[in-house]
Amino acid sequence: MKMKKITTILATLALALSAFAQTPEEIISRMEEEMDKHESEGVIMNVDIKIPILGTISSRTWTLGDKMRMEAKSMGKTIINWDDGTTSWTYNADKNELEIEDSKPSSSSDEGDAEMFKGVTDGYDVSIKKETDDAWYIHCKKSKTNKEKDDPKNMDIVVAKGTYFPKSLSAKMSGVTLTMRDVVFGVKEEDVTFDQSKYSGATIVDKRAK
Known about the structure:
Blueprint: H1 2-18, H2 24-37, E1 43-51, E2 55-64, E3 67-74, E4 77-83, E5 87-92, E6 97-102, H3 120-123, E7 124-131, E8 135-142, E9 154-160, E10 166-173, E11 176-185, H4 189-192, E12 203-206
Parallel strand pairs: 6-12
Antiparallel strand pairs: 1-2, 1-11, 2-3, 3-4, 4-5, 5-6, 7-8, 8-9, 9-10, 10-11
């Protein structure tokens, strides 16, 4: 009788816990809500782009409003870029050269690559691939109704439990593998504001329209 009672209690507990289980759509929706809440704080992330033959280009980006800073490293060389939506500054550490250009329309966006974390359920079928004590691992497969040619066929998103912050996103597009990881919120104005006095010895190449 005792064993039967224990089995009944466990079954009831399992049913109760299942009521709290979240669908992948609900998890991603909550992740998007949390990202919206912290949008004004700015976002920092590491971005790795793996290109066949060339290898991996790793960068760290800071984005706040229209301003952005990116530090990229590849084959031992470092490039730093700032953009405020009007002007773009690119410093080549190897050449000690600073190139100044007018911003390109595509280079200014509210959150840069972080936009890839949003609207996932609109064009993808999502499923929970794995779950651990601290995160959900969600696979996103491009829906048949998604006709956007540039959208990757598959993406994998990791969402932190508790905060619902995105931990990483991986996708493969035209042979190039993109991974965004270590996402945190909280960018200072000085993190994304170019200060030319720090590069007073650099050769300046001004390509802005006169």
